Amino acid sequence: MHSRRNPTRACLADIESYFRQPPPRFLDLELAVCWVLDCLLENDSYPSGLLQRLEHEHPQLRLSETVLHQALDFLESQGMLDHYSKRCPSRGRPRRMLHLHQDVRGQAEQLMGPWQNWLRQLTHSHALTMAT
Fold it and tell me: Which residues contact 14 (CB under 8 A, 6 or more apart)?
């Protein structure tokens, strides 16, 4: 039996507003790995801090916790990450901090060119959509 999908937009103006404010784009595993490396090249961080930073710095992008943990597992399997505990005054238990090994920083930096190009293209296409 064939079912018809009900339109989620009530009128053409609703579709036009979709293009003015498109929904957030979720990062896949490859892009999530690049995001994590980008952050860890600057500073050590903790997983939820990476999610908060993405939302703050790139509001058009989202990263699910599942994909974030897959990216972290991937980087760990590649021998690129260390962990340590850091006590925070506002928390009862220590945070699990992520640290990028010094000897793999060069490999991580090689991915930053393609990652930054992807971000620029996304930002440029988002700006074009907003101008239309």
Answer: none
Residue holding tokens 């090994």?
101
Residue 94 identity (one-letter amino acid): P
Residues 6+ apart with CB under 8 A from 132: 19, 20
pTM, rounded to two decimals:
0.80
25-26 vs 61-62, strand pairing mode:
parallel
* The amino acid at 128: L
| Four-point Cα dihedral 87, 68, 59, 118, nearest 10 | 130
Q: What is the CA radius of gyration of the chain?
A: 19
Per-residue model confidence as pLDDT tens digits over 18-27: 777 778 899 9
Q: Which residues contact 73 (CB under 8 A, 6 or more apart)?
A: none
With tokens 């907003």, the residue in question is 130
Low-confidence residues of the chain: pLDDT under 70: 1-9, 125-132
